[in-house]
Write a structure and sequence with these properties.
Oligomer: single chain
Shape: elongated
CATH superfamily of the largest domain: P-loop containing nucleotide triphosphate hydrolases
Number of helices: 10
CATH class of the largest domain: Alpha Beta
CATH architecture of the largest domain: 3-Layer(aba) Sandwich
Strand order of the largest sheet: 5-6-7-3-8-9
Helix content: 25-40%
Distance between the termini: 13 Å
């Protein structure tokens, strides 16, 4: 059963335009988890649905739920937002069961669905104005809330354009703005970057980090494995089950059995270097690169401590020439595949 641990990542540099909150921030930070689930399941059939979901998400973080299409990500979001009632188990979001949300609690939640649901024959501004009316924002002074939203998602130039004439990426940005109209403290974004180019995906995550820096919590689902690096915590789903849940760094360590050092030596001494490294007490495993003949990957418990020791160890009287040595972080795609393979092997 996967759970989160109490560790946080250093927040990345934020590039997005700051979004001023509509309401004054709370004076006393709330330390309670914003989302807690305990063996929550939603069964559509005996082998179809979400099973035994257990997690705890701290406030003011970005939680990424990652997995292939059909693994249960959207079903999980729908349970957490009260659309689906769990078949069994418990869920608490903002200290309430989602199927019994009070009006006040619903007003504190933003939701960006996977499909675009705004009106194509209204303009960008008219759509935002409509969403604001649903939340009961007063007409007088409403622009003071909506104008910063257009700046935040960089749609000022398209404010009077029909949504049907917006590109897919611009429609996704408008959906983000619509999810923020009510100034939520908890935001669910279901596949927000699906089908958009890498540059725009990067801007989306800049916006998400800016929201996180304001103290908001984001629950983001995605099929893009590399986006795990942008999250504070990551849950990995497979066949309706949460198989891992931790920080990206801890997931990488678990998948790889520690940390990795990349080492490049002169090709004639590769075999000798592998033999000597295998004998070093701080080395757990050595693998030779299939692409670069002189490149080795060294697996160890602590790369920072082991790296300088290996330089001294190999540069002795062995004749081995160390051409490059540094800490290596494999792409999260490799980590994801490794964790899925281990889960499949364990049944």
């Amino acid at each position: 059963m996967a759970t989160l641990i109490d560790s946080v990542l250093e927040p990345p540099k934020v590039m997005a335009t700051p979004l001023p909150p509509a309401n004054a921030p709370e004076v006393v930070p709330d330390k309670r988890p914003i989302i807690v689930t305990d063996n929550a399941s939603m069964l559509f059939a005996p082998d179809l649905g979400v099973f035994d979901l257990t997690l705890s998400i701290p406030r003011g973080t970005i939680f990424g739920l990652i997995g292939p299409s059909g693994c249960g990500k959207t079903t999980t979001v729908r349970m957490l937002t009260g659309v689906y009632k769990p078949t069994s188990g418990e869920m608490r979001v903002l200290d309430e069961a989602p199927q019994h949300f009070s009006t006040r609690t619903r007003e504190r939640i933003g939701y960006m669905p996977q499909q675009f649901v705004l009106y194509p024959q209204l303009t960008t501004w008219e759509n935002l104005n409509f969403v604001a009316s649903l939340y009961g924002l007063p007409l007088l002074g409403r622009h003071k809330r909506l104008e910063p939203l257009l700046d935040f998602v960089e749609l000022q130039d398209a404010r009077n354009r029909l949504v049907s004439r917006l590109s897919h990426g611009m429609q996704r940005r408008l959906a983000v703005a619509a999810a923020l109209v009510n100034d939520p403290i908890l935001i669910f974004a279901d596949e927000p970057t699906a089908g958009i180019d890498p540059v725009l995906r990067h801007k989306f995550w800049d916006n998400f980090r800016a929201l996180r820096e304001q103290g908001r919590t984001l629950f983001v689902t995605t099929q893009y494995i590399g986006e795990a690096a942008y999250c504070d915590y990551v849950g990995i789903m497979r066949n309706g089950r949460l198989i891992e849940c931790d920080t990206p760094e801890n997931l990488r360590r678990k998948a790889l059995g520690g940390e990795v050092i990349r080492l490049v030596v002169d090709v004639p001494h590769v075999r000798d270097a592998m033999r000597r490294l295998d004998a070093h007490p701080a080395v757990n495993q050595v693998q030779r690169s299939q692409r670069e003949p002189g490149q080795l990957f060294v697996y160890t418990d602590d790369a920072a401590a082991t790296l300088p020791a290996l330089v001294t160890y190999l540069n002795g009287d062995s004749g081995i020439q160390v051409q490059l040595i540094d800490r290596y972080e494999p792409p999260f795609d490799d980590v994801f595949v490794k964790l899925l393979e281990e889960d499949a092997e364990n049944g």
